[in-house]
Write a structure and sequence with these properties.
The complex is a heterotrimer of chains A (about 180), B (about 170) and C (about 400). In chain A, helix 1 packs antiparallel against helix 5 and helix 2 packs across helix 5. Chain A has 6 helices and 6 strands, in the order E-E-H-E-H-E-H-E-H-E-H-H. Chain A has about 180 residues and is α/β, with parallel strands linked by helices. Chain B is α/β, with parallel strands linked by helices and about 170 residues long. Chain B has a single domain, classed as NADH:ubiquinone oxidoreductase Nqo5 subunit (Beta Polymerase, domain 2, 2-Layer Sandwich). The longest helix of chain B is centred in the N-terminal third of the chain and has 15 residues. The chains are: A alpha/beta (about 180), B alpha/beta (about 170), C mainly alpha (about 400). The structure holds iron/sulfur cluster. Iron/sulfur cluster binds next to helix 2 and helix 4 of chain A.
Chain lengths: ~180, ~170, ~400
């Protein structure tokens, strides 16, 4: 893990031209900065990992320090889908529907071994990793991951959000990626 | 607890005669094996009898013994509890694969509703008279009964797990 | 619309889908409600959204590898599940556990009961609009997790203890943290109670909401705090004492109405009783071994595995599941966070259980939910669910 992931904090200033009374930088960077520091996560918490997420949200670890305390339970207004816990085959279609309902730009964070790969449940009823149905940006290992790891995962997402090109979501590569999953 | 075994055994034998196929202690539990046809009546009797008063259905579960002879391949276990006296007993019964019908006990204990649905889901027991016998935990589209011993634990449709990678 | 006189009499119901990812359900449950305005006329629950096939999985794992599966049943109080499983196997093999280990288990189990009830009670408060209490008490829950971490290295899915005792003695640091917790938690809990217990809004929202009668509760197989809230003083710790619970002095709180407020209060009081038990256990814990002398089943210390031939052999045998287990069937139950958590284990002498059935209290009592919310308001239904403390992992196995 590189330490640069920690660079993002409200006083972070992108590269640009500075002078008396003005600061000029590219639009991409300004938009990225705004997006990264005001992510609205949608907690898709199904099981044990969700309980660790509760701890992350609560007073001791305090997710609010990273500009993500506004949980959006409506997929329409969320930027970040946090999948926490086992996703069974019965749940799979619902997860996908939630993902499809989210507006671009959207990121996906897969928390815990179960969401990432099925974890210890290599069984007939468990989906072996959510990346079989939706694209994932950041995986957090652990069963369950410690709250510190979750915070780190969110910082990684912030880094992605911050450095993302503004036109990426319209690019043919991105469309091809979604097409792989059969998502329009 | 072995006096409980005697009490219940005598009561059951008085009432149902030779429907009591076996009775023994398994650790701290008196266990009775009953004929399948009379299980429901016996459970009802055990609940309603004033002295025994097994008013609480603790749990029930299905069993699959492929090594048993065909007529006793599948089994069901009911565990009853009399809370004031702290008596607990277990009732078991066996049946063949062809005939997995069993009278429901949902009218005796409401709690049996989901327990029976679960055992239907896992083993395919057909609880006759159950108000809503559908799969409960698995998807409705599932076409087999996963807890039967002949089905593997792992997803049978997985293609990414080839033997080369897993050293099998 | 067809304007004959009869259609005016006919009521129009609307259908409302609640879940499976509704934020207010605290887990993955779906309820399809038939509504008459704000009133619930009927509801149908769908469960199984995180069915993970525990029972099948357990048939494919050696005994000591089943502990991690039990962690994930009721993940708010994993250690109780772990201990329940260990005790089941110990019952099967007829092992005697030293007193010290039993007391250590009691301390851990009661701590996790507190952690479990903190989650449930604060979430009830959150659902009535009191977020502060949640943020406040979760700090104490963090402390409990720190104690667990000190003992076993994990926070939530603890995998604590071994078949035959504990994996190690409590470290001095663990005792220190436990002391710290015992000293400070009463203040925090009292503050929370002052904030919520007699709060007008809270009382109006919870009293006479989602009630259940004793007969119904027994018919539906309720156990644990939910049954006690309805007025039955059934507690496995007292009815069938395990792990030396008979040595401790504690009360069983019971409610009268079985409504949301009673469930909340019973859990509150249970936390105080748990504290009492822990204090007694800490005071009276005897010296001695922290595990039984059971080389065939108790995983040897890592130090010995590297240095002693015998330990290495036993380690290998246990991990590969080569030890002979007696044949038989046993049932053992413990008082979990939500009620009687039972393990029905059938062994055929092989390395894995032949059949392992979990009696999962959540699964059993959640089916009463439609009956409990019928005739109530939609907002009360949410409160009823959170006060029942339905844990998806335990519900769906
Ligand atoms: S990764 Fe582990 S802790 Fe997380 S949901 Fe899966 S089993 Fe639970």
């Amino acid at each position: 893990m590189s330490t640069t992931a920690i660079d993002i904090h409200p006083s972070y200033q992108p590269e640009g031209l500075e002078g008396q009374g003005f600061f000029a930088t590219s639009l991409d960077k300004v938009v990225g900065l705004a997006r990264a520091n005001s992510l609205w996560p949608l907690p898709f918490a199904t099981s044990c990992c969700g309980i660790e997420f509760m701890a992350t949200m609560a007073s001791h670890y305090d997710l609010a320090r990273f500009g993500s305390e506004r949980l959006s339970f409506s997929p329409r207004q969320a930027d970040l889908l946090m999948v926490m816990g086992t996703i069974s085959k019965k749940m799979g279609p619902i997860l996908r529907q939630v993902y499809e309902q989210m507006a671009e730009p959207k990121w996906v964070l897969s928390m815990g071994a179960c969401a990432s790969s099925g974890g210890i449940f290599d069984t007939y009823s468990v989906l072996q990793g959510i990346d079989r149905i939706i694209p994932v940006d950041v995986y957090i290992p652990g069963c369950p991951p410690r709250p510190e790891q979750v915070l780190d995962g969110i910082l990684q997402i912030q880094k992605l959000a911050e450095s993302e090109e503004r036109r990426r979501r319209e690019s043919p590569e991105y469309k091809a990626l979604l097409a792989q999953y059969g998502i329009e | 607890m072995s006096e409980l075994l005697e009490i219940v055994k005598n009561k059951l034998q008085d009432k149902f005669g030779d429907a009591v196929l076996a009775s023994e202690m398994h650790y701290d539990f008196p266990v009775f094996i009953l004929k399948k046809e009379l299980v429901k009546e016996a459970l009802k009797f055990l609940k309603e009898d004033a002295e025994l008063n097994f008013h609480f259905l603790t749990t029930m579960c299905g069993l699959h013994h492929p090594e048993n002879p065909a007529e006793s391949e599948f089994g069901l276990m009911y565990q009853l509890h009399n809370m004031p006296k702290n008596w607990r007993i277990r009732i078991k019964t066996f049946m063949s694969r062809e005939n997995l019908d069993m009278l429901t006990v949902t009218d005796v204990w409401k709690t049996a509703g989901w327990m029976e649905r679960q055992e239907f889901d896992f083993f395919g027991f057909n609880f006759v008279g159950h108000p809503n016998l559908k799969r409960i935990l698995n998807m409705d589209e599932m076409n087999y009964f996963p807890m039967r011993k002949e089905y593997p634990l792992e997803d049978m449709q997985r293609d990414d797990k080839n033997d080369k990678m897993f050293g099998r | 619309m067809n304007a004959t006189s009869s259609t005016y009499d006919e009521k129009q119901y609307s259908t409302l889908n609640l879940g499976p990812t509704h934020p207010a359900t605290h887990g993955i449950f779906q309820n399809i409600l038939t509504m008459d305005g704000e009133m619930i006329v009927d509801s149908v629950s769908t469960v199984g959204y995180i069915h993970r096939a525990f029972e099948k999985l357990a048939e494919h794992r050696p005994y000591n590898q089943i502990t991690p599966i039990t962690d994930r049943l009721n993940y708010c109080s994993s250690p109780i599940n772990n201990m329940g499983w260990h005790m089941t196997v110990e019952k099967l093999i007829g092992a005697e556990i030293p007193k010290r280990a039993q007391y250590m288990r009691v301390i851990i189990m009661e701590l996790s009961r507190i952690a479990d009830h903190i989650v449930c009670d604060t979430v009830i408060a959150v659902d009535t609009g009191a977020m502060t209490g949640f943020l406040h008490l979760f700090q104490y829950r963090e402390w409990i997790y720190e104690i667990f971490e000190e003992i076993c290295g994990a926070r939530l899915t603890t995998n604590i203890g071994r078949i035959g005792g504990m994996e190690r003695d409590f470290s001095p640091k663990a005792w220190e943290k436990l002391d710290h917790f015992l000293k400070n938690f009463p203040t925090g809990l009292r503050e929370f109670q002052k904030l919520v217990d007699r709060n007008r809004i809270f009382m109006d929202r919870t009293i006479n909401v989602g009630g259940i009668t004793v007969d119904m509760a027994l018919d539906y197989g309720f156990t644990g705090p939910n049954l006690r809230a309805a007025g039955v003083d059934y507690d496995v710790r007292v009815a069938n004492p395990y792990s030396s619970y008979e040595d401790f002095e504690f009360d069983i709180p019971v409610g009268t109405n079985g409504d949301t407020y009673d469930r909340y209060m019973v859990r509150m009081e249970e936390m105080w009783q748990s504290l009492r038990i822990i204090e007694q256990a800490v005071k009276n814990i005897p010296d001695g071994a922290y595990h039984a002398d059971l080389p065939e089943f108790y995983l040897p210390e890592k130090q010995d595995v590297y240095n002693k031939m015998e330990a290495l052999i036993y380690h290998f045998k246990i991990v590969m599941g080569e030890t002979a287990v007696p044949k038989g069937e046993v049932y053992h139950s413990v008082e979990g966070g939500n009620g009687e958590l039972g393990f029905y284990l059938v062994s055929d002498g092989g390395r894995q259980p032949f059949r392992l059935h979990f009696r999962r209290p959540c699964f059993i009592y959640y089916q009463a939910y439609p009956d409990m919310i019928r005739g109530g308001m939609l907002s009360d239904a949410i409160l009823t669910m959170s006060s029942m403390n339905v844990i998806a992992g335990e519900l769906d196995a």
